[in-house]
Amino acid sequence: MAASASRRPSSSAARLSIGQVLELLRDEFPDLAHSKLHYLEAEGLISPERTGSGYRKYSRDDVDRLLFVLRAQRDRFWPLKVIKEHLLEHGVDAAASSTVTSIASRPGPSAQIQAVRLDRRGLALQAKVDEDFITELEQYGLLADGLLFYGAVELEIANAARQLAEVGLHPRHLVMLRTSAEREAHMINSIARPLSRPRDAAARGGAEDLARDLGESMIGLHSALLRSKLRER
To answer: Keyword Protein transport, does the record have it (predicted)?
Structure first.
């Protein structure tokens, strides 16, 4: 069972603030933000109670429902419309929420990345490379220079770069991949950023969702095109 699932509120009477919900789910969803929760609320996916002062309070049922929504997006790639229809027809309980991941029909390339926090030596050890290799990745722009700590994405990059280096494709050969990623990110941001309004949390959440979905689509398209070209050999 995922870490966040085992840390749900201890009783149905418990009520959590939005900050407490983010902390509760941090292990499984480290990038979850206030704006995402506001967006899901605006879209009718979750409906926490409000106090007399207007503060949102989340029950255990709210957290279970939120977990179902987040996992269905991440692991099944369901759009919000499909998730909403499923919830209207079937609802959700704790068991369903905790098993979405295990029955995912098409786990995405970033679906199972776990949160990590590593120093430079730790990154080298986890990726099974030496620190000179980390320096080389920074030199060619595959890792940001000057980071004090590295997360799951940096570890994923270092692991992939090591595997490629083992067959002769060293970091200096991978600059075109970095450049391609930069162009794709710029393209996605040019579409998503105009939809985000600084004072509108729901709009920011929608823009973040759109950027993530476009990124997954780009990854899927790139993978399909690469497989297509490899078949042409």
So the answer is: no
